[in-house]
Amino acid sequence: MFRISYIRVLLSALGTIVAFSCVQSPRDRVTRARFLMDTYCSITIPAAEHAQESLDAAFARMEAVERSFNVHTNTSPLYAFNKSGVPVTDSEIVTAMESVLDVCRDSGGAFDCTVFPIVDAWGFYGPHENTVPSAAHLAALRPLVNWRFIAVNRGRLVKLLPAVRVDLGGAAKGYAAHEAAKTLASSGVRSAIVDAGGNIYALGDNNGKPWRIGVQNPRDGSRIVGIIVASNTSVSTSGDYQRYFETNGVRYHHIIDPATGCPAQSGIASVTIMHPDGLYGDLLSTAVFVLGAERGGALIERMTNAGAVIVLTNGNVIVSSRMKPHYIPEKAR
Questions:
Q1: Residue 317 near residue 297, CB atoms below 8 Å
Q2: Cross-strand pairs, 204
Q3: How far apart are CA 2 and CA 56, in angstroms?
Q4: How far is CA 58 from CA 41, 161, 166, 195, in A?
Q5: pLDDT score for 75
Q6: Cβ(118)–Cβ(112) below 8 Å
Q7: In this predicted structure, what is the pLDDT of residue 27?
Q8: Measured between alpha carbons, how far apart are the two ends of the chain, in Å?
Q9: Contact predicate 228/326, CB 8 Å
Q10: Residue 320: which of 185, 268, 302, 200 has the closest Cα?
Q11: Which residues are within 8 A (CB) of 108 and not within 5 positions of it... i.e. 6 or more apart?
């Protein structure tokens, strides 16, 4: 079975929860959705004279990110990098990769951008059939997974091991959502929700109040565990319920632990990160999921600008210190 679920956005003015996007009156808000980066993306902004032009520009920016960051299409420099080892000189990709490598290092490799061959072996890319790789197959692939096998050198992304392959799937959506929000702001939009498959950027406010973003209960998609109150920040979630398949009664999700080559068994069902930078938020949600509540929580506490809501597989919820001022538990509402 394959499922995709998303964070939900709660509009304080209406007090209503709706999946995928905001609720809005046809008179004062406009929403557009597209399928990009292997997921549904939506943008909601106030209705205005130039709203459609602003939406066009924001989606064009997201499409440009997809073309650059998608390692599976030959439009991306990363495709040639993976296939032939051609160094990447595109400044946008190189700058993003510097941030990616920072998180690889800071997480001790819990997030590893070179996990491509193992994710591919599990069949989580594109339309491929999901399969459980043999232990021998995974053992042969694990030596190819190590973020230290790539580097940024004099403005170029280069390989230090020819067989290594990178994947920015754990970063592209958060980055694209933030870039779309920047594009909207540059066109004069001051209030928006950009949702790239659960990677949200909350631009400005909602009619003078912060946006209220509900964190989905990973075991009941009709409920939330709490609300994050946010403005001008990203909110990104990684969860074991988003993409998975079942074989012989066992469920295998898509968040791979680079150390084992298997879906992470960290005791976490979902991680939601609030961070001012969409790229970092996306990366950290995966890293914390793999690390587990204790080590992942410690990573977030060491940071000065990140907050986390961690939902454990036993249903308990852990909220980091910097998230607490922004978080309202469902039972407290």
A1: no
A2: 191
A3: 30
A4: 11, 37, 26, 12
A5: 87
A6: no
A7: 64
A8: 34
A9: yes
A10: 302
A11: 291
Bridge partners (DSSP) listed for residue 20 = none
3-state secondary structure of 150: strand
Nearest in space to 196 (alpha carbons), one of 329, 11, 37: 37
E strands along the chain, which residues? 8-11, 16-19, 29-36, 39-46, 150-153, 156-159, 191-196, 199-204, 211-217, 220-230, 233-239, 244-247, 250-253, 256-257, 262-263, 268-275, 307-312, 317-319, 327-329
pLDDT digits (tens, 9 = 90+) for 28-75: 889 999 999 989 999 999 988 689 999 999 999 999 999 999 999 998
89/68 Cα distance (integer angstroms): 12
More confident residue, 77 or 1: 77
Please name the residues in contact with 191: beta carbons below 8 A apart, sequence gap of 6 or more.
45, 46, 203, 204, 205, 206, 207
pLDDT in the model for residue 126 = 67
d(CA 298, CA 193): 29
The tokens of 254 are what?
């898509």
Q: In the chain, where are the structural domains located?
A: 1-333
Contacts of 144 (CB under 8 A, 6+ apart): 114, 117, 161, 163, 164, 165
In the three-class reduction of DSSP (H, G, I as helix; E, B as strand; rest coil), residue 286 is classed as helix
- In the block, which residue shows the tokens 């039972």? 331
Does domain 1-333 fall into CATH 3.30.530.20? no
